[in-house]
Amino acid sequence: MSIRLRLDKPWRPLTGEEIARLPGQLGVYQVGDGAGAVLFIGQAGARAPFGLRSELQSELAQRGAGHQFRVEVNMQYRTRWFELLMVYRADHGELPPDNAKNPPPLGRLSPS
Amino acid sequence: MDFEPNEEQQMLIDQVRRFVREEIIPLEAGLDPDASELDPADHARLVEKTKAMGLFGIDIPKEYGGPDIDIVTRVLLAIEMAQHRAGLYVPCYGTFGGAGLAQIFEANEDQKERYLYPTLRGEKKAFFGLTEPSGGSDPARAIQTKAERKDNGWVLNGAKIFISNADRAQYGIVFARTDASKGRAGITCFLIDSDTPGFHVRRVVHTLRSSHYATELEFKDCWVSDHQVLGEVNKGFAVANDRLTRQRIPYAAGCIGVAIAAHEMAIEWAKMRSTFGEKLANRQAVQWMLVDNEIDIRTARHFTLEAAEKARRGLPFKIEASIAKLTASEGGGRVVDRSMQIHGGMGMTKDLPLERWYREMRIRRVGEGPSEVQRMVIAREILGSNLR
Questions:
Q1: What's the whole-model pTM score?
Q2: How far lies B201's CA from each of A16, B129, B204, in Å?
Q3: Who among B32, B202, B212 is closest to A111 (CB)?
């Protein structure tokens, strides 16, 4: 069984209470606006002191209220992150706005 | 055969060792433990350093502008280049340059202009499309991607899997069946531009090597002209096979480099760490693990240099290359495993490079021909070609 190509879990409000429930594990995440448009796809790597929880705390501190998030615990956070970015670009023709400001080197993917 | 480095080789080894320890490892400390790329500015700066050292493009043949270093010396240097966290698959993060795919040197002049020279200038990257969902260890039989004649060219249909860099490459070397009735004599090698209609990178394939992904490809009515045939029609298997044999020697060298780095860490830790009032180094259980590490490393180093020496002399080296790949990948895995055991809990963490080496070294027993295929190759050589 393979992992799902797109991260399509339900959105959760980007609040301190929700983030406190997150595991301190490695993985990937998306931050969206109030309407559910993806603004940023991020990764929680091994340098983050508490993994996903640390990264989402940073997102909350930078963005403030009115945003949403969803996460996927994944030890293969780097390759999964690249995959999510490439799939998003294949679906939308461009990267999420906050990734487009400083895009990583990406390949081309044309999911069937 | 004497495999002790001569004076010139030792000077180059020392130079590369300093480069790894003074340039690569300090930068690596600031990267994600699974990173495979340096910051572009750091990469460019270090490329200038390797050029100044006269070692850039180390694997490029002399007639194409390479530094003319023999294969034995290149093996000795490859062992050094691998001795850092990302070193098994991205030695020195590519700052010593690459030669591209070996097969492209067999191209005709037109193809060299379009593919080889841009690759050597760093303008184009390539992927190697051999393995298919039907199998990779027996390409002569497993290749099901078909290429059929049409409109003065060929139409490819099929799939490839576990292909590295296909999503970022400008072209690839792709093997397809052009005569279904002829087994290994019915395979042709094609040069496929990544923007050719009908060529698709369908998905990322996640593996233990979480620093870097492989991809799955689909060819759907992908038409290419006769100018894209590399070598001769129905003689592609020889192209693939030659590459697979040659590649086993540097592949083994990378395993040895990582094994040495893990072993040195284990020795240092054993001398420093005390349990129950005694240094680990004074405990026989730990001493024996270190002894076994030493034997595995020396064995793999001997066989790998033997293979390289035969290749340097122009002698047949197929059996030696298989023995090198087998001893280095299996022995290297054991060394990393024992080194983790000596480190205890710390050995399991991403704070140390051991866990990445453990995962990546496991792939080495399968990549470039699994251990069982290497043993089969050796058995055929020993017992004769009639062996089934």
A1: 0.91
A2: 40, 12, 8
A3: B202
